[in-house]
Write a structure and sequence with these properties.
By secondary structure, the protein is an all-alpha fold. The protein has two helices and no strands. The chain has helices at 4-34, 41-74. Helix 1 (4-34) packs across helix 2 (41-74). The protein is elongated, with a radius of gyration of 17 Å. It starts with a helix and ends in a 7-residue tail after the last helix.
């Protein structure tokens, strides 16, 4: 590894840009299915997004290395990190 700190920072930021739109889409779908489309649906949408974003981000950062290890074992490949 040339610069593992730089690679780690890249992965964290890259993960953020995957989690950000994913949580937004899930918040929108959750708001629509819950029937919140009333007076303050935009406020409820952003409140839902605000609470789900850090939870999903932490879960993805914790579970992604585990998923990579399991996948590498299934395909008998070496894990990069």
């Amino acid at each position: 590894m040339v610069n593992s700190k730089k690679d780690r920072r890249y992965r964290i930021i890259s993960t953020f840009f995957v989690v950000l739109p994913t949580t937004f889409v899930m918040s929108v779908l959750s708001s629509i299915t819950d029937g919140v489309l009333a007076e303050n649906w935009i406020g409820e949408l952003f409140k839902s997004w605000f609470f789900s974003l850090p939870i999903v981000y932490a879960c993805v950062l914790l579970l992604l290395p585990v998923a990579n290890k399991i996948t590498s074992k299934i395909f008998n490949r070496k894990v990069d990190s």
